[in-house]
Amino acid sequence: QVQLVESGGGLVQAGGSLRLSCAASGRIFSILTMGWYRQAPGKSRELVATITRGGSINYADSVKGRFTISRDNSKNTVYLQMNSLKPEDTAVYYCNGNGEFLGNGYDNWGQGTQVTVSS
């Protein structure tokens, strides 16, 4: 399994930018997909963006053209660059890593980082 630590959240005005980071440790080699999810108050957790081991990327329609997911393999870190932020992007953002080790799948989460976008 892997351990995930997010950073980079904060308060920003609408139209601004933030970059989230997710540092992974542990069985890095076993990770298949890493991604960002978010949960706003009173709502279910939803996918924001994912990136697979092979580099395939997927975005939620609501963030396409505004958010960019990327990774730095040398630092075992995945980033989420968020531009043109909107108040509706306000949520706790969670990093996720899933994979398989010795035939057992896993799905690990970070502790979350708060992003607040003021109007």
* Total count of strands: 11
Helix content: under 10%
Distance N to C terminus: 39 Å
Low-pLDDT segments, ≥5 res: none
Provide the succession of SSEs: EEEEEEEEEEE
User: What integer value in Å does the Rg equal?
Assistant: 14 Å
Largest sheet composition? 7 strands, mixed
Number of helices: 0
Shape: elongated
Describe this entry's structure for a reader.
The chain is mainly beta and 119 residues long. Helix content is 0%, strand content 61%. The chain is built from no helices and eleven strands. The chain has strands spanning 2-7, 10-13, 18-26, 31-39, 46-52, 57-59, 67-72, 77-82, 91-101, 104-109, 113-118. Strands 2, 4, 5, 6, 9, 10 and 11 form a seven-stranded mixed β-sheet that branches. The chain is elongated and about 50 Å long. The protein starts with a strand and ends with a strand. The model has no long low-confidence stretch (mean pLDDT 96).
Explain briefly what this protein structure is.
This protein is mainly beta and about 120 residues long. Helix content is about 0%, strand content about 60%.
